[in-house]
């Protein structure tokens, strides 16, 4: 029973540990087994046939499981991390485990922003302030402010902006938009939601265990040898190219020249770029913060972004997607019109309270407060970069991103993960969890309270000096 | 140009009128036309070739438009209503138009609930109160409270509940779960999102204009002659049956006996029921409020619900879906495990502030306050029912739902819509907008301030007495 319960919890994909994983399924199964294997205890009932297994007695519908869901691999990254962390804490109950694994913000949301959300909540209790359904595309004023703040002089208008409940949700809505017949290209390593949502949508073949890749996806290898920018000439076909800069997990940021190459590639091949700029405000140098800084990008690119890592909105849920009206399908139909239909049918707008928070984020005080929070995390990043650099590691990322990418040549990412957890009680993320191109790297997140970052740095120094 | 702009705005599907519909596309097109047709005005440029059309000059990607998106019909119901309302207001600028069309709540959210949300917003600004990513499945305490409040003694547990940003969003996630290979059955008339999300997912054939139905959907006719309960024996195949009770739009509520038949049908045929109970708290009699009141339903049914119409959360965004662990695909795989994977990959949890509001809704004070709001809308419903009844119409619904379904035998729903708008300045919803089974009916929503409901009743009496 223990091993079957474990198997079940491995298949369940969740970042959190409190879901219906092993516990509740096990409970149900054992209840069922008891019901059938101990008939003598049921008053007035005597079954003289041999007891069937729980599997045999359970009612099954005739609806076939979606074959695309069955393609998904069991060991989804973040729940596996959570499972290993829990196991470690059981083994060392007195250890103070520090998590620099999942990229979750830790610092309070600035007051100007929380006050605006609280005020909006209160106003919903008044006749004057109450409002019901908002536009699925988001509040007009927020859309206009996003356009003005992040896309001024780039030709992106209010009507090109779709406010959402976060980039992860919009990635999935974009997959619905494109449907099952497109072929995707993705940076390797990359944020797992791009690939998993593509699998769910039916765009891929089966997972090929030997190469750790799904069939019918173009994996664009991004490693130090190519400056984390893919060799575009090696791509055979790519309808939709997912590209994240500053990158999660490597922390690398594409230069203007590199993004110009990417846009030119899309133009030459008729591809659509989905550009994930969720970490753009972490950029310190003159790397482009938006794909639309590249001339011609409006005709080939969608951009997704988020307030999560700027304002600590990971739990508040607010993001946006830009679909320029200039972006057209092969038949000339505007992509924005189909995306609008997706948003109208499959979504009902972000929470009005979160949107009030978004407006406050974009006020002068809000922008300053967000930048202060970002600067705090960037100081953390510097501590992490300096720690690994001083130990002689090859360290990448960190400069324009809250992620540090550290190379352990010739070693397995999971082995390094285990070593740092076992000996330092620090959780990081094994690079191979982001795709085969991440093997022999680890990702260290800079989201954390300062004292935790300093303590983690101390332990890592002790471990590797 | 005017007619092409109109066409564009008809294709765009949005409830709201402030999107990129006719206006921005028209502007873009005319800008493009000007650029190419008036070259003489561009300083230093002289083009001596004949001017190509905007269509010809625009860059197109080579990505094919998703064929499923192209199947969607142009005249999505609610934007069409908004368009006609706008046209009417331009024609009669002094008229006080009353909208009983779209089912949007109008009364303020009770104080206990808004205060809880404001307090949560403020706490996010503190070190003690801040939290980042929540569980994708929702806050554990909220899941437990939903199970306790709405499913006590029905065998539904905390782990069966998935908290969401609303029922409409979960309908779309359920489509992703089931994939493109299932055949759906749906009440006719029904809430448009069921059918449209099925079309987007690729489950249907083309729209058949003569019968106003998509191919490969089972439309289950619900009319007064069958007490708004479908003839289940006429269904040839149905993998997933969408069933809404109390019903939107007819306001009818299935009896215990009818739901027992439905569950038995699903058992006999191996179908999965998606039961939409978003109006359950409007039930006054002993009709079941949950499908799980029917024995055996846990093995064949999913239930979706929402705080929208109870607490005025249409803009706050909070709902839930119940996927019992007993519900299995044909191969024995639990549906809940795949839905958990969908939620984990395509969603990041409802806003933590909205979830704090949900917890307050389920406190004793919150439940009482929600019931007061519901009672207010039900008083509105009675005014509407009495108005049409006194005029001699056949009136359905209203008793257990905020919707009144009025029959105009032999007349087109859109003609009646136009008549009531033109002569009474009142917006209702034409029944045929919910499917061919709604023809010759209108839906009147009871969501409105009391004075507007009374004024609308007065005008309708003047019109039809």
UniProtKB/TrEMBL annotation, chains A, B:
Keywords: Aminotransferase, Pyridoxal phosphate, Transferase. InterPro entries: Aminotransferase_I/II_large, DapL/ALD1. Residues 96-460 form the Aminotransferase class I/classII large domain. One of its GO terms (molecular function) is transaminase activity. GO terms for biological process: systemic acquired resistance, salicylic acid mediated signaling pathway. Coiled coil: none annotated. The keyword 4Fe-4S does not apply. Its cofactor is pyridoxal 5'-phosphate. It holds the Pfam family Aminotran_1_2. Belongs to the class-I pyridoxal-phosphate-dependent aminotransferase family. LL-diaminopimelate aminotransferase subfamily. This is Aminotransferase class I/classII large domain-containing protein. It comes from Zingiber officinale (Ginger). The lineage of its organism: Eukaryota, Viridiplantae, Streptophyta, Embryophyta, Tracheophyta.
